[in-house]
Amino acid sequence: MRHAFRLITALCMVGLVASTHAVTHQIKGRIVGIHDGDSITLLDADNRQHKIRLDGIDAPELGQSFGRASKQHLARLVVNREALAECSKVDRYRRNVCRVLVGGADVGLAQVRAGMAWYFRRYAKDLTPDRRQQHAEAEDQAQAERRGLWADAEPMPPWAWRATHKRGGTP
């Protein structure tokens, strides 16, 4: 009986882990807006706008170092291009959280490779193991080559910047 319970528990845990990065729906369309280095607006075939947060990354806020550069880099990659968004959840701001592909390339991963975003390890469970590895390696390479935000002596992650500014402090 105890072995059966352990087996059932293990199978449930595997199911939970597998479901954390499952695609729940896809959205196809044209990217018509860039909010910042990790958030876009996609217009679908029915002319509905979808606010999308790129999964697996966190880009500098617009008010911090490299925030505008990150937004501009993302814009060069995606504006007015056809995209496929593979969405896994909706965040607290009611944005779809998605892997966005343009021409088959993962846009979030491109941001990390260019040093325009951090790999957001806090949400690593939302990515497949191979994507976690790709993001980690891309960030390590960008940091080693001092690309983008890694050119700063002490780049501040956006989650730390937001926490500092939320309390009214200074970076």
What does it look like?
The chain is of the alpha+beta class. The protein has one domain (37-166): OB fold (Dihydrolipoamide Acetyltransferase, E2P) (Beta Barrel). Helices cover 36% and strands 27% of the residues. The chain has helices at 2-19, 67-78, 107-113, 129-144, 158-166; strands at residues 25-36, 39-44, 49-54, 57-58, 82-90, 96-102, 105-106, 118-119. The strands form two sheets. The protein has a five-stranded mixed β-barrel. Strand 6 (96-102) and strand 7 form a beta hairpin. Helix 3 (107-113) runs parallel beside helix 4 (129-144).
Features:
disordered N terminus, 171 residues, alpha+beta, 5 helices, 27% strand, OB fold (Dihydrolipoamide Acetyltransferase, E2P), single chain, five-stranded mixed barrel, two-stranded antiparallel ribbon, globular
What is the N-to-C order of secondary-structure elements (H for helix, E for strand)?
Answer: HEEEEHEEEHEHH
* Portion in beta strands: 25-35%
* Coarse morphology: globular
- Any idea how many domains? 1
- How many runs of DSSP E, i.e. beta strands? 8
* Overall CATH class: Mainly Beta
Class from helix and strand fractions: alpha+beta
Low-confidence stretches: 1-19
Spatial order of strands in the largest sheet? 1-2-3-6-5
Number of helices: 5
> What Rg is obtained from the alpha carbons, in whole angstroms?
18 Å
Which CATH-level-2 architecture? Beta Barrel
Report how far the terminal alpha carbons are from each other.
56 Å
What is the overall pLDDT average? 88
Largest sheet: 5 strands, mixed, barrel
